[in-house]
Amino acid sequence: MFSIKMRASKDDNGRSVHISGAEKIISEKQLDSCVNSLMERGLYHPKGNADFMNIKIERVKGDELEYLDALPVTTVEVKDRQEGHREIVRFLEEIAVPEPQKVLAVLKDTYAMRGAMLLDVNTLERLEPDGNRGIRATYMDQERSENVDLKLEKNHYEEAIVLATKVANCPGIVGEICISDDPDYVTGYVASKKTGYRRITKMKELGSENGGRIFLYNGKKEDVEKTIDYLQKKRVIVKGVKPLVTIQSAKLSDNQPVPDLNESSLSAINCERKNPMTVIENTLSDLKEKHLFRTMKSIESAQGSHILMNGKEYLLMASNSYLDITKHPHMLERCRAAIDKYGVGSGGSRLTTGNMDLHEELENKIAGFKGTEASIVFNTGYVANLAVISAIMKNGGVIFSDELNHASIIDGCRLSKAGCVVYKHNDMEDLERKIAENPCEFGLVVSDAVFSMDGDILKLPRFLEICRRNNLLSMIDEAHATGVIGATGHGISEHFHMSEKPDIMMGTLSKAIGGEGGYVAGSRLLIDYLRNTARGFIFSTSLSAVSVAADIAGIEIIEKEPELVQRLQHNVRYFCKKLQESGLNISSETAIIPVVIGDEKKAMDISEKLMEEGFFISAIRYPTVAKGSARLRVALMASHTEDELERAARLIAGMLEK
Ligand code: PMP
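A: This is the predicted complex of the input protein with 4'-deoxy-4'-aminopyridoxal-5'-phosphate.
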């Protein structure tokens, strides 16, 4: 057998924060899958991705192991915390602790401790050698079959039974009191060999982090070391741990044992769960407290440079509709014709009944525009990234991803079966280093072409050269590049005057193009593969004809009127010049111009003040950008006038000075 322990932490501004921990005692056969699943748990934990993980494996000889029977479980339902604490006193009386009230009073001294307090029940003396750390009972696990595949989902309840069983069987210990420090978890327990494991349903108020643990010692002073040794070193396997079963709405009276349930009734019962609505509510309160709660503004007009909200006109400098063609006559004409012919709603996925000639026309148009053999359309850019990355990397490998890539790329990486290595933003040296450090048989390098929150451009020539030399697939996301950069708006390849193209050219139809949807352009081989494997394509109803018509029209407008793109590029230069003349050192080559403010609240306040002045400029904050780098994200349109841009630049500069 082997003991395996995992601890994972992440760095939070130089401070190491614990995110996950686990320990198991398993057979050699299970070692491999156990290490893998613990690694996965630490690396992709809901509390964050680990920056540091420690996995310790030690051999356990058979004769070192002690097998114990799990304590029997009972549940005591109490209506409030006071009643819960009375139950603790009752328990202490049952196990003959001389002064129960005094023991209860000591409980609050454990709240700040990491481990448990070891308390002499006769003298109330604290016996743990380090009063801050306390004592941690460790080296224990529940018994499982060697041949069963390890399912290592965290089960706090089962882990608590294992721990309580070890503690209750420890020489010198007569009992234990435990209250969780998890603010959402109010059930605690008392345990001893005599009483078994007794859950008490309310030990503290919801939202309170006041939790702690006391091991109650009743032995000779000179034997304390033996007790600590057992708690910290003895290898213990607990037999017969049953899942917690509480029957919904069944009222369990004091000490009534939880009934044994057969297989069929197990599906109708719950494991220990938090109240889902409370969890949701707490998350929202937390967001509000941190000024991260989001609300929406309701616009009553088309997405042009001038919009109406609550009957008032605003200058819109926050939209991705860079060319301002959503009401272009050609666009409307194409859409009306499509509605007349096809109606709305496509009725099926592309591979069933939802494939119209119009979809194919759009795909040919995109391929022509991007200079590739073929293309495939998805319902949004977000879905395109998810579907493509997960399909390409479905059999594993390594993805190298820029740290500022769009959320949809990050989510695509998460959905894939590949490992993900994040390299420093647009840092081609770091990309090379990371590739060298992470050898793989099959890999993908992915980057935004224009970064959505910083507006800077990928160093495409170096990027492609590195991918080619290392035999890695290259993928770019041109959401903010198509229709924006390159002399005629054809995107990043045109910007760099390059004929060589990335293997996977992804983009959206919803920004400069003015419609909706996402696409991938590339070789016929790639597109055939995606049609056959990309789940976001296969299992979703296709875009309706009117959206497809808008996308076709958008591309046609860019092709026929490249002066729109040139107007947008002029506006970018003009606006940056005006910002610089106002004393702000800001420049950009794309329609996205970030004005970094830092503080979340300050960014929100400035955005609101601009709104009062009639300028709609969004504040962007965590989690869209890193904490402490909140910003105004100015997004320009081809239709903004010089006068409007000059006024906006002066206003922003003035507000930043204050
Ligand atoms: N990629 C990038 C870089 C984006 O900025 C966006 C949209 N914000 C998307 C993908 C998703 O595209 P869509 O809005 O069409 O879903």
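The pocket of 4'-deoxy-4'-aminopyridoxal-5'-phosphate is lined by residues 380-382, 385, 406, 408, 448, 452, 477, 479-480, 508, 510, 518 (CB under 6 Å). Residues 245-270 have pLDDT under 50 and may be disordered.
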